[in-house]
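Sample entry (663 residues):
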Amino acid sequence: RNGPEASLRRPPPPLDRRMRQPVLAAMLLGLASPSRGASLAAARASRALRVRSGRAFASASAVAKEPRFITTPIYYVNGQPHIGHVYTSLACDVVARFSRLDGHKVLFLTGTDEHGQKVEQSACKAGESPQDFADRVSDTFRALLPLYDFSADQFIRTTEARHKEAAAALWSALVESGDLYLGAYEGWYSVRDECFYTEEELVDGNAPTGAEVEWVAESSYFFRLSRYRQRLEEHILANPDFIGPASRRNEVLAFMRDGLRDLSVSRTTFSWGVPVPGPPPPDGLSHVMYVWLDALTNYLTALGYPDTEAADFRSFWPASLHVVGKDILRFHAIYWPAFLMAAGLPLPKRVFAHGWWMNEGEKMSKSVGNVVDPVALVQRYGPDPVRHFLLSDVTFGADGDFSEKKLVESSNAKLANELGNLAYRTLSFTQKQCGGAVPAPDAFSEDDLQLLAEAAALLPQLRTHVDSMALHRYSQGVSGLASAANRYIDVQAPWALKKSEPARMRTVLYVLIEVLRHLALYSQPVTPRIGAALLEQLGVPEGGGRSFAAVGEGSALQPGQPLPPPRIVFQRIEEVDEAEGGGEAPPPAAALTAALTAAEEAALVAEVGAAGERVRSLKASGAGSEEVGGAVATLLELKARLPPDHELNAKPAKKKKSKAAKA
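Predicted structure, serialized as tokens:
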């Protein structure tokens, strides 16, 4: 509770209520207007705040410099990406973006898990080698990064040479600790889950996840998991935030209550995996590492392990946050910490398990036919509406029920009406009445100060939501500020002041523009395109002025600063009538952003062609998977900028095998 991670969750002490409004207003505005009586008291209060509340700001600054290593689980390549994969990556992306804006050095990791029996079987069924199959499916997961504006710093694959080296090194560390021994496994195993189950865990003859199980009997190395039950339990109890949410923590403790059985960590009935290092085992069989021991090691691989003196390892380990789906919590909250304890490595600071997305109350399943295609979804609506809906509609950590109708309604209400309309009517009115520049304010009223204070005071609240993983509250907090600004503009009615009180009109518009600046800053983690578009509308250049350091003294827009011509930052989406099969499709994502000119599209097509040629060249020359993967990512990012209906984004038709070929 009192470890280094505690400061990430503790909000700064509250400001003195008597000082809060004028002080924050003075901080926010960073200007004085003696001719209008710009508050000398506020300036004094601002100086007093820096002295009296130095601890709060020093604490925030210290936190902002602590590196953060944020990870998704690496996704299993036995099938195509689904909305659950997007949800996990989105949560990590929001935390990573917020942390960078808040001054942290961040490493955001995602990737694909490419070994195991299921992959070998799927490759055989597809008529491909396991490596070719893994290459092809891994690219579909990598393609999600540009489509959803995920800001991952690394995309790792378990078939990379560096990972095989790291996995072998971890195995050797477990051997040295005396925690591996050769035995024989006999029991239930789910190929789909790549997980062992006891008889007591089966539900109607299947795994708890609903997957089929089969009886397995084979020679195997075992990890002495039973040896670590007490240490694990003590760690979990001593660090209440190690597993979140609390309900998942309780589930893990309940699972451990009756003890832990030693874990089979090698397989001999298939070969697609990382070979067990060391001399041949006494049984004379070829062992490959259990896919979960292999996969979990990726978090170390990305930081340079086994070189624990590598710069990234020293900066980023232990991991700040592992985000996982609730169905794989056991592997991250029990097996992974035990492996690390045995290897003498520090444990991650937090593991957070989110719920599942349902469709009409049922878990999404290919067999049921209710799976949401994340690629089609983002091409239809664009990334920001989907990102906003997924992280605002459901309490993060709980299960949610997906609905396109709710996605459209939420986007129209919160993004188009509440924020987009506020921005457009404020900036278009300013353009007409103030010569296309930031107006100079007069003396501020109590209502002005209150709204400015609310805008500045929102940051520590948002920080608390992110650090506690209450991500659904983030968008709610931003929406609350936008609602307050809409109430303010309706009450102040600047359009009614242009003739009778022009000075007051300029003050109201200035306050609204400053609040819009803060809304734009705060919007960046969840809806990065809308945040960037609004900052452009306000004339805020890229750089420090778009970080959270700009929430405070000296960063306010200056009177007379030119403003670009206003445009709509987010258009309404046509309503979806699910009861009638969805009706006409909403406009594609391209319709929600500025269209490319013919010259821009031609130039982009040329870039796509060159990027595609580079991918083909690298593959033909036998380049490493990391270099090829980087080239593929560039190609996918360029294609994502083309209209969704462009011929280069069309999916190639599947080639049917001839009967002769099948024979």
